[in-house]
Amino acid sequence: MSDVICELKGVKYSYLGKYPALNGIGLSIRAGEKIGIIGANGAGKSTLLHLLDGLIFPDEGSVTMFGQVITDKAFGDDGFSRSFRKKVGLLFQNPDIQLFCPTVREDILFGPLQLGMSRGEAEQRLEMFSSMLGLGHLLDRAPFRLSIGEKKKAALAATLSSDPDLILLDEPTAGIDP
After folding, report:
1. Digits of tens for pLDDT over the chain (178 positions)?
2. Maximum Cα interatomic distance, the chain, rounded to a whole number of Å
């Protein structure tokens, strides 16, 4: 069995069919690897992560995750969609896109509960990640009342709380104190 969990072959993507973002990308990611992608603003880093998370799909080429080609049709299957969302977690560059519940606590619990984790296990993960990231005093606060760094940490806790196999981080340290 191959340990490749993600493979892109000849991936091209353009916005609105006329603004190229990715052109002929090939990439393989193996289980356990940690990969950083750097580039200038507008180079396509976020677009690449959105492809890997199944939020957008290539104009040309293929994206294979965990042995399955990722297409919009594949996400029409509830079983596939749920399985994929359990395996892949994305921390968005802008935490305001990710945080939508009335409190930080509810945001951290939302993903695990929606993906079928028991309430008890979700609560344990809430405690673990809020403690790890120093969010305990913010759990009952509305996300819009947080600083950008606090929002980023809350969004990270929400991403990690679902226990994904693959974690995609889009500028994870932006706005966070050293």
Report:
1. 579 999 999 999 999 989 999 999 999 999 999 999 999 999 999 999 999 999 999 999 999 999 999 999 999 999 999 999 999 999 999 999 999 999 999 999 999 999 999 999 999 999 999 999 999 999 999 999 999 999 999 999 999 999 999 999 999 888 787 7
2. 48
Using CA atoms of 160, 164, 167, 169 in order, give the dihedral in degrees to the nearest 10: -40
